[in-house]
Please model this.
Amino acid sequence: MTDSLTATRRFYDTIAKDYEAHFGDTLAGRPLDRAQLTAFAELTGEGTVADLGCGPGRITAYLASLGLSVYGLDLSESMLAIARREHPGLRFEQGSMTRLDLADGDLAGAVCWYSTIHTPDEELPALFAELYRALAPGAPLLLGFQSGEEPLRLDRPWGHPVALDFRRRTPERMTRLLERAGFALLWRTQRAQDTDRGETAPQAFVAARRPARPGLGEHRDAARPCGPAEQDSADG
Model:
């Protein structure tokens, strides 16, 4: 397990109970957020959908309420314990979205709802290559993340002796990385931050699809690390 994965797992294992108590229903009062998930669900065909980085399982449960056959995956066993307690009828597994225990093309869809925000920049191409591999041709992928350029360092949340970086990225940059991995853009959008609910940055959503036929939007060089000049170009 990489240092970033170890740090992320330790952070959420430590704060899981406080996180659950503090954030409640994150979709309530956010119609645009719900609309992203609803549109994603309508584009998803028959088969299994993965909520990658599911945390306490709220998005997993919402996707299930839309009629999807969905399971949640997370690094943090403490978060998964909450998810299993709150949503006993759903399946939750421990693991990393960077190395999915799935055959090629197993998934009918995947959601990364604020779970790519802890992935270092240099690891995003390999992550998107892995998601592309696991998705069936034509299957959609939905990302939710905080928009911006500068990361947020969260230190000692609720007094716990842990810290973690929350990486903010623009929708345009994430689109370029997805297209480099072979995905075809479906839509991207951004909404203003909800300061009344403690948001400190605009919120972005990007949906893409693994093309149904080879050659439609496929570049497939995502797993190859960028050189310095290419990285500058990718970052805009």
